[in-house]
Amino acid sequence: LEDLQDAFDFCFKVHYRPGEERSRDPQYTQQLQLLQAKLQNLDQQRRIVLAQMQQLLGRSETLRELLQEELGDWRERQQRSCLGAPTSTHLRPLETWFTELGQGLFQLRKLLQALSDLQVKVTYERDPLVAETPLLQKRLQEQLMHLLKSAFVVEQQPSTPNPFKRPLVLRTGSKFSARARLLVRLHDRNHRMEAKIHIDRDPPKIKGFRKFNILTSSSKTLLAGDSPQEGLVCDFQYLTLKEQKDSRSGKGSKGANEGSLVVTEELHLITFTLAYAYCGLELELETSTLPFIIISNNNQFSSAWASILWFNMLSSDPKAQQFFSAPPPAPWPHLAEVLSWQFESVVERGLSQDHLLMLAEKLFG
């Protein structure tokens, strides 16, 4: 396209003489006809390139929708694995697909910028670049933003280092870790990306809902390219939580802990934010953990784990912090499967039909 328009621009400046009366000059008329043919060819080639861009953006949208389905399946597998289900939660395939789609979209972004630059040098009446390039750029920008926002995921849910403890049940004063990953492994090596964590960024309006502080550092500066083999990871380790004490609680007062939910049914969330920048595109990415429960002593662990099991078994909304205000019942076949996962995660063998029948008789008579 650049060669075509340079050739047209040269001929235009050499041969076109507006204001001169040369309509009877056959050589000049022939030059104008050749000039018009060059312009028509340039216009046709511009339209072909724009049509190819439209087609590629359509295909990338289809691919992005497929990746969203794959990501949704991975989230479900991760939720089941937290309950002990034998399933794979490796992110490497998804990371490869997300990265390659991101590379393709950023390459299209460069090409669209190049088309805009061409239009600045040479334009004409009904130039398709003038009308269509801004629309393509907007469509591409939306695709990139959607891809990047969905590509920021929690790879490791909040969990304590003790291998015998379950994830999503934390204890005040005890260390825990959580990790988020950006599946699009594209970064500017000269740009410093800062990741932050927040607990209960938008707390539910529940009476007596406890508030906590993260005592250790809640932000990290990631130098892009630090560990390219590991990808873009926000790894927060050795975190600890401390409850905020209500100044109103004291002698003669009920205190802040007397809320509408018991401690072992109070769901909390950690949110990761990441200031992302690449090739001139800057945006804040955000992702949240699954709801977890914060206990203050080990006697509460069994009840807390039962709540985590119930929530992940029945809730379709990963941010439903008010789930236990009116918890739904579980159908026995669903509960039986989850109980079998519990046994399999500990003793490497699930429950047989006889075992499940015995449990059902214990529960239901």
From TrEMBL:
User: Biological process (GO) annotations?
Assistant: signal transduction
Locations listed in the record: Cytoplasm; Nucleus
The chain positions of domain STAT transcription factor DNA-binding read 157-295
Under the cellular component aspect of Gene Ontology, which terms does the record hold?
A: cytoplasm; nucleus
Q: Which UniProt keywords apply?
A: Coiled coil, Cytoplasm, DNA-binding, Nucleus, Phosphoprotein, SH2 domain, Transcription, Transcription regulation
- Organism's domain of life? Eukaryota
Gene Ontology MF: a single term: DNA binding
Q: Does the keyword DNA repair apply?
A: no
Boundaries of every STAT transcription factor all-alpha domain copy: 1-143
From the record, what ranges are coiled-coil? 32-70
Q: Does the keyword Cytoplasm apply?
A: yes
Query: Main site of residence?
Result: cytoplasm
Q: Which residues form the Signal transducer and activator of transcription linker domain?
A: 321-365
Record-given protein name = STAT2 protein
**Organism classification, top ranks?**
Eukaryota, Metazoa, Chordata, Craniata, Vertebrata
